[in-house]
Amino acid sequence: MTQNEMTQNEMTQNEADDQSEIDTAASIQEPRLWREVGWTARVIKNEDDEGWAVEMIKDGEAEPALVGPWTMGRDKKNPKPLDGAAFRTLVKTASEVLRRHEQQLHAILHKSVRVTVDSGSVEVTLDIVPDEDDPYALLAAHDAAGEQLAQVRVAPTFKLSAASAEAWIEGGFRKIS
Fold first, then answer.
1. Per residue in 112-133, pLDDT tens?
2. DSSP secondary structure of 30-98
3. Using only C-alpha atoms, what is the Rg of the chain?
4. Residue 51 and residue 68 in contact, taking contact as beta carbons nearer than 8 Å
């Protein structure tokens, strides 16, 4: 092996060692605090009663994605310690809660209806933009081939229905006040 190849191998090994140290530093496995794979589980005192709760926080988020009851230990005073199997189950459950929340939000912010008019089938979509200062929605029409026929900005309170979509189409896709 040449000197250059040895230096490259040493650099690659050093990078791997550095990454291992970072992974180990980020990973915590304590009885009441467990951090891995982008999640933190923390066992906390349940404020509502004498029991314990566990909160699951996704890295980078301020609020927990999931808070639920936690099992008491054998002494009936302290919480059962976290372990790998429990943590994996909590990650799966918290991820599912976030996924359902995202699906619900998508359903609220994105509506569509398909109507048939003289020119054929038209899909009309309403996409709400929940801006804090200036919320609005985009009303758009697409033909059967997916070509956009029109798009206008409307109030975020606009109610999309088959009747409102047909009226907009028949009105020549005019801006709606």
1. 999 999 889 999 999 999 999 9
2. -SSEEEETTEEEEEEE-TTSSSEEEEEEETT-SS-SEEEEE-B-TTSSSBPPP-HHHHHHHHHHHHHHH
3. 27
4. no
Nearest CA to 54 out of 26, 27, 25, 93 is that of 93
Q: Which two tokens stand for residue 123?
A: 């899909």
pTM of the model: 0.67
- C-alpha distances in Å from residue 51, one per residue of 47, 54, 76, 82, 91: 8, 11, 9, 15, 21
Cβ atoms of 19 and 8 within 8 Å: the answer is no
H/E stretch holding 153: strand 148-154
Q: What is the mean pLDDT of residues 35-45?
A: 95
Question: Which pair of tokens denotes residue 69?
Answer: 């009851």
Residue range 24-46: mean pLDDT, rounded:
90
Rounded CA-CA distance 65/42 in Å is 12
The DSSP H or E segment spanning 125 is strand 120-129
Structure tokens at 166: 């047909």
| Torsional sign, CA 166, 172, 175, 177 | negative
